[in-house]
């Protein structure tokens, strides 16, 4: 499905980004793994090579323009171009507006929104091949909130708006831009959150899973599959789409 494609996957050391890197490699793409976590990023690269694929790791802090510009350029130079960008870098922080420190607000915006902007900004110049795809990772929290996620929910709403702007701005260049909005996905981020709020992580995952009509949280591979589809020519007429991957969470009212 992705034979001959060159993909840059951010946040690919762990969680959804790692699953996207492995999934796209399994469909034939070569992968630039971009993340700030070098040890885990090199593990993703090794696992791609083990399954018969090709990948390189670039260490980058997604908040820093010079680092992102050089990461994008080095991946495009190494493989000879760029067709796909999958933006997954993100952090979760908790608090309402009164309780969120200003530096925490800025951190969430910089990691979640600025990194998506920066990778997209520098990738577009390498994507002038009339058949490119950018897929941003937002969240159900762009549309429906819970208490105490003021900064995170705002950042995810911004990613939806950015996706729509980019889809319009770059359609004439043949760059499709779409967005996935996952519900709860079993990743290190979700397990970190579970540790904060429940006596046991497994119990939290079961409880959160039960809130989803499909009765469980997602595996990262299930989100990666949708991202890989959006990256491929199979989605050649899809741009500006905001796609829930949420086990039905967003369609459920809070009453039975
Ligand atoms: N897990 C969920 O339930 C869930 C639900 C909806 C949306 N999302 C979104 O999916 C994306 C991936 O989440 P995840 O659960 O896989 O998270 P994760 O914490 O498991 O993985 C995030 C990756 O991003 C990297 N990263 C963080 N800050 C960085 C920075 N400044 N520069 C470079 N790399 C950085 C981390 O090293 C890590 O490898 C995020 O945008 C998140 O908001 C996750």
From TrEMBL:
<comment type="similarity">
    <text>Belongs to the short-chain dehydrogenases/reductases (SDR) family.</text>
</comment>
<dbReference type="InterPro" id="IPR020904">
    <property type="entry name" value="Sc_DH/Rdtase_CS"/>
</dbReference>
<dbReference type="InterPro" id="IPR036291">
    <property type="entry name" value="NAD(P)-bd_dom_sf"/>
</dbReference>
<protein>
    <submittedName>
        <fullName>SDR family NAD(P)-dependent oxidoreductase</fullName>
    </submittedName>
</protein>
<dbReference type="InterPro" id="IPR002347">
    <property type="entry name" value="SDR_fam"/>
</dbReference>
<dbReference type="Pfam" id="PF13561">
    <property type="entry name" value="adh_short_C2"/>
</dbReference>
């Amino acid at each position: 499905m992705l034979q001959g494609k060159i993909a840059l996957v951010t946040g690919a050391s762990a969680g959804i980004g790692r699953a996207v890197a492995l999934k796209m490699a399994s469909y034939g793409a070569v992968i630039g793994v971009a993340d700030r976590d070098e040890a885990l990023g090199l593990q993703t690269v090794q696992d791609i090579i083990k399954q018969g694929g090709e990948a390189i790791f670039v260490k980058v802090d997604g908040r820093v323009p010079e680092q992102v510009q050089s990461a994008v350029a080095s991946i495009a130079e190494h493989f000879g171009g760029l067709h796909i960008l999958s933006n997954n870098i993100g952090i979760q922080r908790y608090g309402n507006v009164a309780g969120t420190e200003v530096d925490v607000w800025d951190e969430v915006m910089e990691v979640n929104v600025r990194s998506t902007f920066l990778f997209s900004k520098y990738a577009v110049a390498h994507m002038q091949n009339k058949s490119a795809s950018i897929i941003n990772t937002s969240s159900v929290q762009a549309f429906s909130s819970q208490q105490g996620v003021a900064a995170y929910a705002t950042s995810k709403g911004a990613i939806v708006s950015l996706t729509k702007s980019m889809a319009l701005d770059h359609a004439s260049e043949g760059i499709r831009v779409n967005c996935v909005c996952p519900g709860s996905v079993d990743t290190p981020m979700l397990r970190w959150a579970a540790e904060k709020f429940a006596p046991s992580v497994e119990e939290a995952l079961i409880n959160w899973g039960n809130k989803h009509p499909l009765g469980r949280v997602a595996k990262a591979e299930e989100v990666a599959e949708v991202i890989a589809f959006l990256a491929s020519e199979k989605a050649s007429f899809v741009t500006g789409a905001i796609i829930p991957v949420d086990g039905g969470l967003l369609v459920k009212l809070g009453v039975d």
